């Protein structure tokens, strides 16, 4: 019997496992392929904030960025590289956004001597995506198996009719959901990044049309494409690696002259984005049961999420889009605190917000 089973060993699942590593709970982490085999293994894993004007996502990411920088340095300093980040404007509209960001930010801005393009530069970082996931999940029991069935029986969850578990955390990214609820919708955005061998030396993380990592032993990582049309689970067509490489190199060349380039490794995977771009963490509402409860007025604008019916001991963490490595430590802490001590989770990230919107539509 496990206390908690985490399904999905990407950065979200592994960050949850790490939160529980200091408790005496027995934790299992399931993945159908392996640790960081999904979107997380493809990530450049840049730790950066969002350089935009005001907005919910920007504010949330700003808090997550500050938290994650300290977290990676403290817990995984050996696989975390602090590097100045140079974010260059793509066009005039972007330049205006950066100017507005610079006026309002509380982050310490850096000067980049000789840079004539509009930019923002700050201290940021990069983690080694696969190694950090492996390190986080180290104290959990790893089970390589696809979770196909989840059944709640006599107060416990039964996974694949074999493993008994008290609580479940779904961290399955943009892959086929195990529990289907009509209000939970995630879009998978396919991405491709490459490692190139080059004689060009680069000392900064540079973000413009794509992200370019600092050189390490003559290798520079370039990522990532945003391909909304390709999804490995809904198409039989193989992904066109050559076209992806071409796109990455063309975009990188608009920012930095790269010489004697040879692509030495490709990484591909899905980011999992929610429809309002804000992640989803917390307990999962049972839509049918909640709709059947005639005492709840689901058309009212101000909803009390506590009135809804929830799956017992079942939680999710998903939808962090292109910022999974920035969000994961911050969100995993909030979810673990909720599971262990019932500490309230910020309403704006609860999956219940999507149920409230969906139910209002169904009832109108
Ligand atoms: C090319 C690329 C570059 C990126 N660059 C960055 C970046 O620089 N910075 C950043 O912060 N973010 C970046 N991201 C985004 C980041 O990688 C994602 O937000 C993050 O990986 C999401 O993590 P996850 O754990 O939710 O999902 P995933 O990593 O996809 O993990 C989900 C896991 O669940 C497993 N799974 C699914 N269903 C089941 C099942 N039924 N049974 C068992 N296992 C199952 C899958 O095998 C998978 O391993 C990038 C993403 C891509 C694709």
List the helices and strands and how they pair.
Blueprint: E1 2-7, H1 11-20, E2 27-31, H2 39-42, E3 46-47, H3 56-76, E4 80-88, H4 92-104, E5 119-127, H5 129-136, E6 141-144, E7 150-153, E8 156-159, E9 163-170, E10 186-197, E11 205-207, E12 211-212, E13 219-223, H6 241-253, E14 262-274, E15 280-285, H7 287-292, E16 310-318, H8 324-341, H9 352-363
Parallel strand pairs: 1-2, 1-9, 2-6, 4-11, 9-16
Antiparallel strand pairs: 3-5, 4-5, 7-8, 8-9, 10-13, 10-14, 11-12, 12-13, 15-16
Helix pairs in contact: 1-5, 1-8, 3-8
Main traits of this protein?
D-Amino Acid Oxidase, Chain A, domain 2, 8-stranded mixed sheet, 364 residues, 16 strands, 9 helices, FAD/NAD(P)-binding domain, binds flavin-adenine dinucleotide, 28% strand, 29% helix, alpha/beta
- Helix percent reads 25-40%
Number of domains: 2
DSSP summary: helix tally: 9
- How much is the radius of gyration in Å? 21 Å
In whole angstroms, the N-to-C terminal distance is 44 Å
Count all strands and give the number: 16
Broad structural category: alpha/beta
What is the residue-mean pLDDT, rounded to a whole number? 95
Give a short account of the largest sheet: 8 strands, mixed
Strand proportion: 25-35%
Q: What is the name of the CATH superfamily of the largest domain?
A: FAD/NAD(P)-binding domain
Q: In terms of per-residue confidence, which ranges show pLDDT below 50 for 5 or more consecutive residues?
A: none
CATH topology of the largest domain, anyone?
A: FAD/NAD(P)-binding domain
- SSE order: EHEHEHEHEHEEEEEEEEHEEHEHH
| CATH class term of the largest domain | Alpha Beta
Shape: globular
């Amino acid at each position: 019997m496990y206390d908690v089973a985490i399904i999905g060993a990407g950065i979200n699942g592994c960050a949850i496992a790490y939160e529980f590593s200091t408790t005496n709970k027995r934790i299992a982490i399931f993945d159908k392929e392996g640790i960081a085999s999904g979107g997380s293994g493809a990530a450049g894993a840049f730790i950066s904030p969002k350089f935009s004007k005001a907005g919910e996502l920007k504010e949330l990411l700003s808090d997550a960025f500050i938290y994650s920088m300290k977290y990676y340095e403290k817990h995984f300093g050996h696989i975390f590289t602090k590097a100045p980040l140079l974010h260059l404007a793509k066009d005039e509209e972007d330049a205006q956004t950066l100017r507005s960001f610079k006026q309002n930010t509380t982050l310490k801005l850096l000067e980049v001597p000789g840079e004539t393009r509009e930019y923002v530069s700050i201290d940021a970082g990069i983690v080694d995506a696969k190694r950090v996931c492996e390190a986080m999940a180290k104290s959990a029991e790893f089970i390589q198996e696809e979770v196909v069935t989840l059944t709640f029986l006599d107060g416990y969850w039964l996974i694949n009719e074999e493993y008994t578990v008290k609580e479940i955390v779904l961290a399955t990214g943009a892959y086929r959901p195990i529990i289907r609820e009509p209000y939970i919708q995630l879009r998978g955005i396919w991405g491709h990044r490459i490692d190139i061998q080059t004689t060009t030396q680069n000392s900064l993380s540079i973000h413009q049309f794509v992200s370019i990592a600092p050189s390490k032993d003559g290798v520079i990582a370039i990522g990532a494409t945003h391909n909304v049309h390709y999804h490995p689970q809904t198409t039989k067509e193989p992904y066109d690696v050559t076209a992806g490489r071409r796109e990455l190199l063309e975009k990188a060349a608009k920012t930095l002259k790269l010489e004697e380039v040879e692509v030495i490794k490709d990484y591909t995977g899905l980011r999992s984005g929610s429809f309002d771009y804000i992640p989803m963490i917390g307990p999962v509402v049972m839509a049918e049961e909640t709709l059947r409860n005639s005492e709840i007025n689901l058309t009212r604008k101000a909803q009390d999420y506590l009135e809804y019916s929830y799956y017992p001991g079942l939680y999710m963490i998903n939808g962090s889009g292109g910022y999974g490595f920035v969000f994961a430590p911050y969100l995993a802490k909030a979810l673990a605190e909720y599971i262990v001590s019932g500490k309230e989770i910020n309403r704006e990230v609860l999956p219940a917000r999507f149920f409230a919107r969906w139910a209002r539509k169904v009832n109108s």
